[in-house]
Amino acid sequence: MSNIPSESRDLLEQAIYYPMLVKVLERDLIAVDKSPFKLPKPYKDWIEQTLIFVQKQLFSIKRELKRQGMKIHEVKRDELFTTYLFVYRGYEEYHSYFNPSIRNKVEELLAYHLYKRFDPE
Known about the structure:
The protein is an alpha+beta fold and 121 residues long. Helix content is 60%, strand content 20%. It has one domain. Strands 1-2-3 form a three-stranded antiparallel sheet. The termini are far apart. InterPro entries: YhjD-like.
């Protein structure tokens, strides 16, 4: 049984996904610079604006973690799983995540931040 409420655990999981999302966007910026696009500036601007937005989100996540007295540490990584230590108000819990599911979640967040957030559903 977890001592961490689900809302707080969601926030801790965002602290896993958002730094990875920043790395993906930074690598994509480099790829656009090296690519043979005829007009790379719109693509670069699009990725840069998304990166700025995601970095602001990550800043808010980190601020909220600190405000609630939570921390997250990567403990172990192998080909299939990554284990994190969640510290929540003095409680420590280890959580293992399947690496492909982390990748899928980061991909969902990337799609959301690149274009789905603009869809008027």
